[in-house]
Write a structure and sequence with these properties.
4-stranded antiparallel β-sheet; alpha/beta
Length: 495
């Protein structure tokens, strides 16, 4: 059955039915990390959000080119146009090459994403590898009259652009007031207006990362990279651009202006933004000094953490909230996610232990078809992962009722129910059994329990009641609940 995805477009401020520019194909660009430090929980949220979108688009039949960039130059210390390059600063302090710093933290980011079961993008370009494309972008904007050179740097002329187009349409800002208020600062520095942003920056003598250009030896402004690389790999018009809500202004607003100023039309059809993760109501981030790295979450080595949390607990914690809602970190919330994930995985494990009934059973295909339809309905409603999880929890209760012999399920419905869990919990939500060989260990564990219970059945058949009772009592002491059935036995571990 064909699925129709509806997503919230930040540009139109409403949900829209997704229609790709090219039928059957999707071009998607997501802003990746600035690699001057370890990834933290704030980085995990956009990675998981757009991994969910990537997985779902592919699942419903689209061929997706997913581009996620690495920012390894041009992201300055104070804002987009001023201060020291963060990677260069790290390199200077640690006496390393800037690309050594970038590569080290890129590798660390990839390792964390793998732990979180985030699929790699189709293309992962680096800003430093696309200087030529960024210079060409600046040349086009200059040629079209929307930028000016000043002392070897090039700035975007926001006021001139705003007279013809609308600078602020993504964030909903009226830039006329901002521009007028900034005029009293004119003459300070190189800009005509304080709202103008850098397309190219002349490098100071101490600046390590620099490239030759028609204007100076320097480096591109932060906003240029995504526009240049998005166009290179996805074309002048592509479907989806995503990132955190903190990027709406100025980064994505500037991207829109650069695209329109260089090619005369919008580049992106749908803008999507995930909301923030907060600590005590304050955004989590490096600049605020309140971040906890993913490595610290996995090890538990941070003063704010009551324990270590597994990568799948982190992923489940993020998926339990809608991507456009704020999520506030707390140990209590993560511990609740840990229990919820264990409950879901127990449901999956119990599916493998159910002996199907002869015939249809009291839980039939009508129930499974309705469950599947509800999960698709939730995903099609702007990737509503919390609702999907709630439907799977409801199904876990049905599975437990079958395990407890309060209901029965036929083979066809059982196989279909297992497919629903496999499709939505694993393929789409991206959850997985943890611990490396944990799945194999769980399977071996179950086989050992089954072997003991088969020995108990053999003892009962031989009227060896002492052995039968001993096996049952020892398993009960370990937390196993064993029930005899007409076909054999069922068991569950009460954790």
């Amino acid at each position: 059955m064909e699925q129709k995805l509806c997503i919230y477009n930040t540009l139109s401020r409403k949900k829209e039915e997704f229609e790709p520019i090219t039928p059957g194909r999707v071009g998607m660009y997501v802003c990746g990390p600035t690699v001057y430090g370890d990834a933290h929980l704030g980085h995990a949220r956009p990675a998981i959000t757009f991994d969910l979108l990537f997985r779902y688009l592919r699942h419903i039949g689209y061929k997706v080119r997913y581009v996620r960039n690495i920012t390894d130059v041009g992201h300055l210390e104070h804002d987009a146009d001023e201060g020291e390059d963060k990677i260069a600063k790290k390199a200077r302090l640690e006496q390393l090459e800037p690309m050594e710093v970038a590569q080290y933290y890129t590798n660390r980011f990839h390792a964390a994403m793998q732990e979180l079961n985030v699929l790699p993008p189709s293309i992962e370009p680096c800003a430093s590898g696309h200087i030529i494309e960024q210079i060409e972008l600046v040349k086009q904007i200059l040629a079209n009259g929307f930028a000016y050179e000043s002392q070897g740097s090039v700035y975007f002329d926001v006021e001139k652009y705003n007279k013809k187009y609308h600078y602020g349409k993504l964030s909903g800002r009226n830039l006329e007031d901002v521009i007028n208020n900034s005029r009293e600062l004119d003459g300070v520095g190189e800009k005509r207006n304080q709202v103008d942003f850098a397309l190219w920056k002349r490098a100071q003598p101490e600046h390590i990362m620099r490239w030759p250009s028609p204007w100076s030896d320097g480096f591109p402004g932060w906003h240029c990279e995504c526009t240049a690389m998005g166009r290179k790999y996805l074309g002048e018009h592509f479907d989806i651009h995503g990132g955190g809500m903190d990027l709406v202004f100025p980064h994505h607003e500037c991207e829109i202006a650069q695209a329109v100023a260089s090619q005369g039309s919008d580049m992106v059809r749908y803008w999507m933004h995930n909301n923030m993760i907060t600590i005590n109501g304050q955004k989590m981030g490096k600049s605020l000094g309140n971040f906890i790295t993913l490595a610290q979450f996995f090890s538990g080595e941070h003063e704010s953490l009551a324990q270590a949390y597994s990568p799948m607990t982190i992923r489940f914690f993020i998926l339990q909230a809608h991507y456009r809602s704020t999520v506030d970190f707390s140990n209590e919330a993560l511990q609740a996610s840990e229990k919820g994930l264990a409950r879901l995985m127990e449901g999956v494990a119990n599916l493998k232990r159910i002996v199907p009934a002869d015939g249809e059973g009291s839980v039939g295909m009508a129930y499974v078809d309705e469950l599947r339809a509800k999960c698709y309905e939730a995903m099609n409603d702007d990737l509503n992962s919390p609702i999907v999880i709630s439907h799977l929890f409801d199904a876990c209760r049905v599975i437990n009722s079958v395990i407890d012999r309060k209901a029965t399920i036929g083979r066809e419905a059982l196989e279909a129910l297992a497919d629903v869990f496999r499709t939505f919990a694993f393929d789409i939500l991206g959850l997985k059994e943890e611990g490396g060989n944990e799945g194999a260990r769980e399977e071996a564990f179950g086989k050992v329990v089954d072997m003991l219970l088969e020995q108990r059945m053999a003892a009962k058949a031989n009227k060896d009641w002492a052995t039968s009772d001993k096996i049952r009592d020892n398993l009960a002491a370990l937390g196993f609940e064993v029930k005899d059935t007409k076909d054999g036995f069922t068991w569950r571990l009460n954790r």
